Amino acid sequence: MSEVVFKDHVIYDLESYPNIFSYCGVNSDGTELKVFEISDRKNETKELLQELRRLVVEKKSLVGFNNVGFDYNLIHYIIDEAKKAKSKGVELKLSARKLYNQTEKIINSYRGDGFGMKVKEEEMIIPQIDLYLINHFDNKAKSTSLKTLEVNMRSENVEDLPFAVGTKLNDEEKDILLQYNKHDVLQTLKFYNHCVDMIKLRYDLTEKYGFNCLNLNDSKIGGKFFMSKIEKENPNAFYVRDEHGRRKMRQTPRDKIVIKDCLFPYVKFSTPEFKALKAWFEKQVISETNGVFSDIEEHLLYDLANYCEMVVKKVKFKNKPNESEVAEFMKLHPKGWVEEIELKAMEVVKDENGLPVKEEYVCEKTGKVKTRNVKVPKKSYYGCYRIAETLNVVYGGIRIDYGVGGLHAAIQGHHQSTEDEVIMSYDVASMYPNIAISNNVYPEHLGRSFCKSYEDFYHERKKFAKGTSENLAIKLGLNATYGNSNNKYSPFYDPKYTMSITINGQLTLSMLMEKTVQKFGARIICCNTDGYEFIVKRSKFEEVEELVRKWEKYVGLQMELAIYDHMYLRDVNNYIGIFDNGEIKHKGQYVYEGLGWHQNHSALVIPKAVEHEVLGKGTVEDFIKNHKDPYDFLLSTKVPRSSRLVLVSECGLDIDLQNICRYYPSTTKGKLVKIMPPLEEGDEERRLGIMTDWDVKVCNNMKDFTWEINYDYYISEALKLLEPFGIKREFN
Questions:
Q1: The whole model's pTM is what?
Q2: Which of 72, 184, 198 lies closest to 135 in space, CA to CA?
Q3: Which fold has domain 9-209?
Q4: Are the beta carbons of 385 and 295 closer than 8 angstroms?
């Protein structure tokens, strides 16, 4: 148990079924685990109310997982019912059924982005801290359940809900449910200990700056913090009152954005490739910011079509197209063409009346003349045209992709510094905030004063040491501004601001890349949003540095330099980099430390083995076979409540498993299968194998772990990760 920081926190969880309701709570130090049951065999309503009163009197806070959305609604309902009973002078009578009915109301209020039934923060009788919210698990991209956290926290025992919601339980099942309730609370406590620093930051900010951010994610904290700073100078910056006195959010929505109006005047290029890219941007008028830089047809690329990679798209005609059909296709796709493809299959030739054309032939067996249908190979007809799947330009031997999220490129393989050459890596410091500051870019409804506030905000951060609550809050605020500028529900919303920042960010970095290649013959090997890596002669190092300093003054940004000894690149989002000081950077599938809680933590022995080999410490085979941490071999899968997960035994029997399952490839026999409901009534259930090529052993409880591991799986997967680096060998 880690050192207890908040002694006034109680971690809790509820379970609600038609004939049993339970509350379980434990102190943040793991002491005083309490369980209260309201069921058809026991009614501890009085004891539960006493506990809730104690929490209020002692000014305790309840900590849970999705408790603001769900659990506290029930707690508040219980307290409210107690108040009503007291006002009437009667004893509160609660039943499991009554509480379950309220549970159903809460669940049925779910609308895809959370529960509609929520108690306002200012109305909460017992303060709540929601680990689900502060970790931003309510974001679809980061959505994570407590069960997934149990896997990722390497819990000894991973337990899923033992009974379907709405089931009426017998006494034995009730006891199982109570044990499960305790388990969930202890697992929430375990996760809570991982979140203590996040909670402390939120308390510090709430105390210092006067707004409650205990249940806000980082982005919301950042936005709210910056807003509070601006509102001190301009109280009506973000909200105004309408004629009815209702608060109305200020925004700048756009029917269209003329990209030429967004471009900074100093963005200039000297090569035809980048000139064509800039010219393309200057022609664009957009009404939507999503997907605007993808699937661009050749004729809409203009001169850029000469310098970018494209793929061919094909549209099949039902029959051979006539002249008018071809003309219609060419009208839609001016640079398209029609292809006639001969198939192996044969078809009968027909005359103008639709009758089969006959031909005479001599039978080889009889020598007699016979007739038969004339057949020719079937033909398919396709309308073809080229598109750029992403906006891109090929320059210096590398394809650079552009998009709303930034530019990206990578040359797969193992790149290394040598006696003559060096891998230089440059990143723009706080790229998006500094673009806005240096170029006076602002959401239109906030006016020019935004720029001054934003710049002051940026410089204020430097006053506070890294790691302090103030430094972190300002960092969050700076980053949140750009992100929220493309959020239709934010008072920072102005998509022109978004496009001005992202497009110019990509183009200014492209200016530097162009000059690096032009002047010094550099070979770009990777670029990603705010930086790039390239190989250049060591003799040119100082000249490159001088060029970067000039670029910094020209565009008003600052670069941070790092040197790589090695870069093992699969793609821009998956690589291992080894710096000249020996530090190692992992990304994507090569990461095994510092993974987000929402990310997949499966089979971490694989990236560890890959790193072992690229560092020259031995082979992946030797590392995997000698590795002794059982958790590093575990994988997990999860199926929705509408489906079942089974283990098919060696004799073919289906053994039901919990919906989230931890397992590992094993020398024992057993196949994981997901069973889905039929698509239509009367159809059979659908079966989908998981890891069909491998037998597995289930290991939800580590007591079930044995070293009957099929090492071949891990070795084969590790070899796949090594292959992009040019390390290839046969797997035996």
A1: 0.89
A2: 198
A3: Nucleotidyltransferase; domain 5 (3.30.420)
A4: no
